[in-house]
Model the fold of this input.
Amino acid sequence: MATSNWARALAALALLAAAPATAREREGQVALTFDDLPALTIESNQGYIDDLNRDLLRKLRENHVPAIGFVNESKAEGAEHDRQVDNLKRWLDAGMLLGNHTFSHSSPNSLGAAAYAADIERGERITRPLMKAHGKKLRWFRHPYLEAGSPLAVRDWINRWLRDHGYRVAPVTIDAEDWEFAEPYDDAIAKHDVARQARIRQTYLAYTAMRIKWSQESAKALFGRDIAHVMLLHCTRLNADTLDALLKLLRAARLRPVTIDQAMRDRAYRTRDTYAEKDGVTWLERWAATLGKTLPSEGDEDPPAEIQAEYDRVDNDRVSPQNK
Done:
C-alpha cells in the first residue's frame, strides 16, 4: 500500500476508535473465530503459549464476547501434550466453543479427498471428548487456508463427507491476514523491541479496519445490505494484546459479537456457492464468483510490504503459509 493510503488508513483508524456506540437496533453482527489452537506462534516456550491463551480468554470474558477456536491437534503432540490440552480445556471452561481445523493443517489440494477426510477424523480425537465432557457437541469445521477442494467433484465429495459426519463448514467473510502480522510480533517480543511491537500493532489495526470496511462494502455489493459476518482470526499473542482495540473497531463498524450459530442464521449463508478453484478465498469472493458480481477494489489489498518482508525474515513459507 502506498504511504498516502496508509496515512489515510491510520487517520480512519483514529476516527473509528473515537466513534460513539450506536443504538442496538442499528447494529450488525459478527462471529469471532480463532484458528490454529492451541496457538499460532514461532515461540516454542510453553509458558508463552499458556499465557497468551489465558490473556485472550480473559479479555473475551471481560468483554462478554463469545468465540470459537479451531484446533489443530498435531500441536498437542509431544512433551507438552498435557499443557496443550489444558489450553483447550481453558477455552471450554471460559464458555467458548471448539471446532475441528484438521489434525495437521494440511490442504485437500495436497492430500487428496480421502486423505484429507482422514486428517479431519484424526483431528477430533482430543477435541470431541473434551466437548462431550463439557456437554457440547463437536459440529464446526474450518478448512485450512480456506481451501475447500478442487475440482468441483472433489469439493462436493468433501462436503458430503463433512455432512455425513455431522460437521458444518465455518465460512469467513472478514479476513485481515492476521497470521502475517503475528509472527513478526512474536519476534519483536523475543527481541524486546518495544517500538517495533507498537508499530506492528498499529499497522495491524489500521489494516484490519480497512478489511472490515471492505467486507461490509462487499456484502452490500452482493446483497444490497450488510450481513452477519464471520471473522477469521488466530490464537496469537498479537490478538491477545490487541483484542480490546479490535473490539473497538468492530463497535465503530456497528458490528456486535455473536456466536457463530447466531451469525449463520443470516440468509446470506444459504447463497449458492459453485466456487471450486484451488485458491482459498473468503465466502464473499466465492459468492461473487458464483453470482458473476464484482466486489469493490478499494480496500482489497495485501498487508503492507514492510510486514510481508518481516514475515519472510521470520518464516520463509510464503508460498503456503504453515498456519494461515
